[in-house]
Design a protein that fits this description.
two-stranded antiparallel ribbon; alpha+beta; 33% helix; 3 helices
Length: 106
Amino acid sequence: MPINALLIRSLMQRYSYYGDSFKIECPTGSGKHMTLYEVAIELVNRLSRLFLRDEKGRRPVFGGAEKFQNDPHWKDNILFYEYFHGDNGAGLGASHQTAGLESSPG
């Protein structure tokens, strides 16, 4: 996550120099071209979705941990993990060192 934050900040800084005139393909192979600002926002949205409920009401960050997905005492206590699974977004590594965040309704 910290590397992603640095990457997003760097994209924003480069956008402030290049502006709308410089575009890159995002995602790679899609044929869709975006400004560096748009790419940064796309990354922010993707990272945010790790913590938000999907259409089934499940949070990717909780992976297959049913207690965190369904238990009323845990499902809104969002933990911030040290690492995240690259394919499904499940939180990995230390979470006991990070403070849980209460989510807003919705």
